[in-house]
Amino acid sequence: MRITIRELAGDDRAAVALAVAAGAHGVYVQNALARGEGEGFVLSGDGRDAVLAWTGPRGNLVLVGSGELAPRAVVRTVDELFLRRRPWRIAMGPAAVVDALRERLQAAPLAFRDQVYYAGSAATVARAHVRADMRPAQRADRDRLVQATLLLNQSDLNVDPARVDRRWLRDTIDERILAGTTLVLGPLGGPWCKLDLGSDGPGGRMIEGVFTFPEQRGQGLATALVASCLAAAPAGVCLHVGKHNRPARAAYERSGMQAAGGCRLLLLP
Known about the structure:
Elements: E1 3-7, H1 13-21, H2 27-35, E2 39-45, E3 48-55, E4 60-65, H3 71-81, E5 90-93, H4 95-103, E6 111-120, E7 135-136, H5 142-157, H6 166-179, E8 182-185, E9 193-201, E10 204-212, H7 221-232, E11 237-242, H8 246-255, E12 258-267
Parallel strand pairs: 4-5, 10-11
Antiparallel strand pairs: 1-2, 2-3, 3-4, 5-12, 6-11, 6-12, 7-8, 8-9, 9-10
Helix pairs in contact: 1-2, 3-4, 5-6, 7-8
């Protein structure tokens, strides 16, 4: 099958349709397309749009679409015609396509695994877990949030804290605090649990970076924070988590979220 490629430009309804059809896996890209963020293109075969490839400012590559096109042909096209001018660090997409990406690596990845998507809303939330003391993070919380991010990246993605640019991390956290997109439970300057709203738009809200400090675990804080986020959201909320991470998955299920598909994740060294 001959693959044709079309770069995204303006209001690309076909690309949006592919993102919407992907369900929870397409929420992040759907929101980004609505804001005109990132770059991407649509791959078609026999005149039918089949795969959407999108890269964002954080070095993330998201691939959504059907299995109509051969995975290796998709990866070869993505690599040769697009990604060499916009490097990526982390990729998420259908297992066969991400496996083909993995084959092209020269070194072992930091992470290579299956992710499970969860979705929920104010209609599905477990109200018993909703707390009134969820709050937006403040500047006084920054040092604690830096520590949380480093610990989360190390435990979840095998990222050595020594490799993380601390200035970039503090700036990123400051931006989230200013935007009100980091939510926490716990006292000012010493939150116990946090999450970030990584994306918000017509597709819904995407939660990321859920973390509870080790000394506070076992108290249902992650369940409570996610449930409180669901209760306050005007539309649907979703997140993804490693398939192997049973404690986190159980916490999300207790909050009122339900499994809503999956994908494969690849993080470059």
